[in-house]
Amino acid sequence: MEGIDKPLTHTLDPTCTGTSMYALVYKDGVAIATDRVCSYGKTARYKHIGRQYRVNENVIVAFGGDHADFQWLQNVIERKELDLKCYDIGAKLTPKGLHAYLTSLMYYRRSEMNPIMNTIIVAGMHPEPTYDNLVPFIGVITPRGVGYATKHVATGLGAMLLHQNMETVARSNDYKLSRDEAFALLRKCMEVHIYRDCTADNEYDISSITKDGVTMEQPQQVIGSWEISELNNQYE
Fold it and tell me: Which CATH class, in words, describes the domain spanning 2-226?
């Protein structure tokens, strides 16, 4: 009876977590950036931890929130991809299909009062109607199982700080930014973010998905500037 009266609640209290993510549709594909730290509360417990997972040559999944939950979710995605390969019909997970599946799964888990404590970004190139015509896609899923598609997204603290800036720049260019322009915007977002989020790290991953496949760049770093320290006069 004790187990019934007091069910396990540890899943509602994430331990090691990742913070904000940024993704953007540009002229030829999708760009996505995440930092490389898992925090234990406010402590940078595990550094050099990537939060992007390459599903196949057309899809990347990135996560914020509980790292253990995403490890379980990654195993689920791998099994789904393997199931398609086992049928040997040339099929593979598409970004829209994976987004729909994960939305249903996370909504089910939330309805069972056992939510997956992750915010998920599914980014990639979706075949419409065939793989001869690939179009950029970004889908977002919240821990409550709310899913939506968008052309730009910032999560976590970045949603408050930088989402409007991303939208302004992307819309002013009619979402036709070049790859270099999209990367420059995401790098600027990461720089602004790290100065303001105590759970962010200066090392980050930045990737792109185009019709030619997934390109995951080498980890990059934000080099801090001490010039801005002169603007902090709270001690006076």
Answer: alpha beta
